[in-house]
Amino acid sequence: MKISRIVILIMVICAIVNSGCKKNQTAGNSYYVKKATWYESMLESVLNAQTKMQLPFEAGHWYSAGPFTCSSDSLFNKPFSPEQNHHLLVPHDDGSIKWQKRIEWEDGVINEISFDQTAVYYIQRIITGAADTSVSFYLGSDDGLKVWMNGTLLLSNNVERGCSPNQDSVKLNIRKGINVLLLRVNNFSGGFAFYASFTRTNPVFELWEKVKADFPSDNDQKEMSWESAHNIWHNFHLSGRLNDLAQRYLDGYYVSCEERGMDCSIINPDVKSRKELFAIRDSFIRSKKAEYIILTPPAPAFPLINGPRVFGVRPGNPFLYTIPVSGERPVEYLAVNLPAGLTLNKNTGIITGVIQKKGTFTVLLKAVNKYGRDSVLFKIIAGDKIALTPPMGWNSWNCFGCAITEAKIKAAADAMVSSGLINYGWSYINIDDCWMKIPDKNDPVISDSTKYADYSKITQRLCKTETLKPYQHGLMGTTRDTNGMILSNKDFPDMPALTRYIHDKGLKAGIYISPGPLTCQCYIGSYMFEDKDAQQFAHWQFDYLKYDWCGYSAVAENRELAELKKPYIKMRQSLDKVKRDIVYSICQYGWGDVWKWGHEVGGNCWRTTGDIVDTWASMASIGFRQAPLAKYSRPGYWNDPDMLVVGWVGWGPSLRPTRLSANEQYTHISLWCLLNSPLLIGCDMTRLDPFTLSLLTNREVLAVNQDELGMQAVQRISNDDFQVWTKELADGSMAVGIFNISAKRKSFTLNWSDLNIKGNRIIRDLWRQTDLLTSASRFDCSVARHGVILIRLIPQMK
Asked: How far apart are CA 428 and CA 416, in angstroms?
């Protein structure tokens, strides 16, 4: 489910509606004490808040048991054994499921449970009361939720939703002594999470936002991101002892040592002053900074032609391709044997025009500057297929969420060029949700005809438009013109001018909408206007469409396969009526095994999972469970495990550096390239630091993703410590990713027999772009915690 999107929707509604939400936003300000540094401010403020907020009981750690699986129809009501016996020592499901202590779960945050679909988890904790008392308890869940206190059912809410704070609340009657709180969380698909707090608002988060606003420098924000990733501050109910914070810093310090494969000194967490605490913190920060080692060599001054070696276009449709060339400018571009109808701008490398006839055309591309020249053979296939290699570009969602404007989209396009990313094949600039208008109850599209009566009810129920101020900020109002053509909101005043701006830079433009009456964020959707929207997108000259299920749940009759296919077939038919190549990205979170039928409904790529977030648990769980899907990926049809979460992200106006460690980011990019995933950058393009840029401009790593053979990597080895994935390449070589999924640096031996290959292989390190050695039998390596060795095995010519 859409965890981050629902949270953002609540924030938007709170900002628009002058309601109680606004009052809650300032609850923590009375505790805030600003000091010289952000971390001194945070410490002083948290301790101040703790002094003023004391609970008359002690809540223990969370424990979980699961997953328990069953059909979606019986998921919510079917009882499982923990409901009869929830003792922590009692196993379930014939002993295969045991209660697990979840020390990483915190109150007042959205806790990820797992990525199991159509499953149930039970969650419990022991609460020890000093006396009989009652307290309000605030909850959120993805999806359905039941709550018991000391065996009494307090809440039963069968819903399908993303998790956000304060979706439900119950009154807990806590008696003196031991109490057992038991939760049951159901998940139908996508994300799987819960939220719990004894306070409606968590002062720590409000203090955190206050500190972020008061200390906006990139260096301070990066430190905050590191401390957030290691949960230094997230649990408000600390004991108040400095030792607790010292131990959290040390835990992060030791993890960082493992990231770098170093033996770090053991430090005593028994601190007696803030000075001693901050000395430990300094060790943590220095260690984190040392993780960010750039492996990608600087690009040479002479030209190198990057990107794919094949490109698909449909005859009669506009053609746009920019030859991606790294090297010092100026560069002169040449193309020998271009097919009739295409022209090349020799100064920009942009090829445009129209090919009228089907055929395969082999073109010799050349690039020349004062330091040298490069040339490659490039196939243009004019036929029925497009997206012959996975799309590469940028999407606005993971960065800005709904806080998007035309200016930010233009800035992303500018940065795609000025950063040099365009020189490595990055080409799409995609607008996600929130470019349209939010319909109000007087919108003539949904109110002047009984034909749209259900549409109106759905709109008002989901968005509560009767409580919003019509047309506030220009984001609400009439959503379509008198011809039914969709209208953009005031933040996107001229869509044709925006796409022209993007195209003039040699880039392509993408757009988003839902097949339902509304999008994920309650903006107008395409329901009943599919033909009109396809026409509008083509008129606006968009090249990519992300079609996100979201609001279609309100009109879908069921979750049977035919119903899952239906909206995507409809939009495919509409897209086929326009004369433009539009990459069709199906987004419905993997329901109904979409990888088996996505191509049948005309998709070029299809999401295989719920939304990714910037944590190891999310990225690794999504990436490493793609193994069964390999056979469904091929040129023109790609499995999509979601966008990239490197760089500055945030899903809204408040951005921060990714919480993935340096090693985890190398793993993320390496695995997504092996998986033939569409590569859509999700960060603020105007804040690309050298490390992030190095991740996105390694020509040999990206070549694995863009290889024209289009074979997705297969999983060869999987155990508790390592996973090995291999991908066959068009030139007969093999890309191999050796991933250490454990928490410690470990050694590994890869035997050729594990890969069913024989003979001498040149072993090339793709990140470092260096030949390591030649071997006839094996490769020995040491891989850091959550890290990867990405190599290419090249048969040695006799």
From this structure: 9
pLDDT of residue 190: 64
The answer to the question of residue 328 being in a domain is yes
Q: Are residues 739 and 695 part of one domain?
A: no
Structure tokens at 677: 């995933």
DSSP string, 473-523: GG-BS--B-TT--B-B-TTSS-HHHHHHHHHHTT-EEEEEE-SSSB-TTS-
Decide which of 682, 705, 728 is a domain's last residue.
705
- pLDDT recorded at residue 92: 83
Say if 115 falls within a structural domain.
Answer: yes
680 and 753 together in one domain = no
Residue 239 pLDDT greater than 80, yes or no: no
Select which of 548, 640, 684, 707 is catalytic: 548
- State which of 382, 415, 447 marks the end of a domain: 382
Count of CB atoms within 10 A of residue 751's CB? 12
CB atoms within 10 A of CB 298: 8
pTM score of the predicted model: 0.86
Q: What are the tens digits of pLDDT across the range 277-330?
A: 999 999 999 999 999 999 999 999 999 999 999 999 999 999 999 999 999 999
Residue 449 resides in a domain: no
Q: Which of 435, 439, 438 is nearest to 405 (CA)?
A: 435
Using one digit for the tens of pLDDT, what is the confidence trace for 784-797? 999 999 999 999 98
Where are the extended beta strands (E) located within 489-617?
Answer: 508-513, 544-548, 583-587, 605-607
Count of structural domains within the chain: 4
Q: If we measure between CA atoms, which residue out of 503, 491, 487 comes closest to residue 407?
A: 491
pLDDT of residue 454: 53
The size of the chain, in residues, is 798
Strands of the sheet with 722-728, listed across from one edge: 714-718, 722-728, 734-740, 788-795, 761-765, 770-775
Q: What's the rounded Cα separation, in Å, for the pair 191 and 345?
A: 46
Q: What are the pLDDT digits (tens) for 186-214?
A: 887 666 889 998 877 777 778 888 999 99
Sign of CA dihedral 657, 499, 512, 385: negative
Among residues 433, 533, 581, 611, which one is catalytic?
611
Q: Where are the beta strands (DSSP E) in 349-463?
A: 350-354, 359-369, 372-382, 392-395, 428-430
Name the residue range of residue 588's domain: 392-437+479-705
Q: How far apart are CA 669 and CA 294, in angstroms?
A: 14
Encode pLDDT of 443-461 as tens digits: 765 554 444 555 555 555 5
pLDDT at residue 569 greater than cutoff 80 = yes
Known catalytic residue at 548: yes
Same domain, 774 and 672: no
The verdict on residue 536 lying in a domain is yes
Q: Are residues 130 and 150 located together in one domain of the fold?
A: yes
Does one domain contain both 193 and 315?
Answer: no
Joined tokens for residue 350: 């942009």
**% residues pLDDT > 90 (the chain):** 69
Do residue 317 and residue 418 come from a single domain? no
